[in-house]
Structures are given as C-alpha cells and as structure tokens.
Amino acid sequence: MKIILASNNRGKLAELQAMFAPLGFELIPQGELGIPEAAEPFHTFVENALAKARHAARLGGLPAVADDAGLCVDAFGGLPGVDTAYYATQFGYDKGDDNNVRALLEQMQHQDNRRAALVSTLVAVRSEHDPEPLIASGRVVGEITRAPVGSNGFGFDPVMFIPEFGQTFAQLPNEVKNANSHRGRAAQAMVALMRERWLPSPAASTGKP
Fold it and tell me: Which residue of 58, 81, 148, 192 is most buried, as measured by CB atoms within 10 A?
C-alpha cells in the first residue's frame, strides 16, 4: 500500500519508512506528488497532524500519515511546542535546525531547570473524510545540555540528553535512537494500530473462521 507522508523532511521519511516497511507500506513524500505544505494554525500537535494528513489525502488521493512534533521545555511552560520548527525566527535567526539549537541554548543559559520532552503525534487517515483517524503519540523526557554533543540525528538531538542512555540522541546509533525516540515510540504505536485496523486479519485473508 502506498501512503503519502505529509512532510518533505528526509529525517522523518527515513525513520518512518523503516518502521512501516514490515507492513508492506511505501511512504511517498508529498513533494513528489506536488502537494504543498498544509497550514498549521492550531496549538496542539494532534490538531496540526490531522490537518496535514487530511490535506495530503485530499490532494493526493491516497491514504496519508502526518507527524507533528516538537520540544516542550518545562521552564518555558511547555513551549515552543507546535512552533518548534520556527523557534529560531522568534530571536532574529533564519529558520533551521542549527539556529534552533543556538537560540534554545541562548535562552536557557541562565536556567537551572533544564527538563524537557520531545513529543511526536502521528495521525493517519484512509481518505480526506476518514471518520476514524488513527492517532498515536510518543514522548521522551530528558534534559537540555549546555552545548551540542554528538553528530548523528537532526533537530534538537545534539542537545537532548537522555538519562537512561547517558547520552544525547545525537550520540546514539540510528537503530537505538529510532526505537527509543519520541517519533520512534509514536511510530511503533501507529504500526500496531495500522496492523489492527487497516490490514486484514489472517482469518479474513484465508477465508477461515
């Protein structure tokens, strides 16, 4: 089955494709189908992900899956949240991962409470009007480092220290990160939902009761 990924982020594509491949699903970035990015006017991850998934399904004519993810910093009352991708622009920087990290470290330089969570919400729809979208969330709690550490990953991975591993996400091998990241956890939950709701049961496929 072909499914539109309502994103053109190569990092997301690689992580999610690896998770969905065992189901026989092929993810197609929306850009390959000429689908523009959807508006994201909402304040919660689930609302924005649903809007993006329905938008891609409507314009692409295929099932679609969308991810909305972000960093929720305790000292900032849970922000930047859904505005994570544009975080740096609030402080005069151009949009981009490196600038986001730079802006975050600058804003947190006098903060002792460095607890934060990376949150990912995945929403999948069979069509634009699917009345029962699949919704899965993943969350990882860690601490913001005082300087980037590691060269793997993307986004805030170099400054997200995960106590259970004693390393930042950017220091972990891909297979470890993918299995334990916020997006990895959301994807695992989504795979289980898709297997249950979207794939025929073995009994149905064999015709046996």
Answer: 81
Rounded-to-integer distance, Cα 57 and Cα 71, Å: 27
In the structure encoding, which two tokens stand for residue 158, read together? 């170099």
Output the pTM of the full model.
0.86
97 counts as catalytic: no
- pLDDT, tens digit only, all 209 positions of the chain: 999 999 988 878 887 888 888 899 999 999 999 999 999 999 999 999 999 999 999 999 999 999 999 999 999 999 999 999 999 999 999 999 999 999 999 999 999 999 999 999 999 999 999 999 999 999 999 999 999 999 987 889 999 999 999 999 999 998 888 788 898 899 999 999 999 999 987 654 455 55
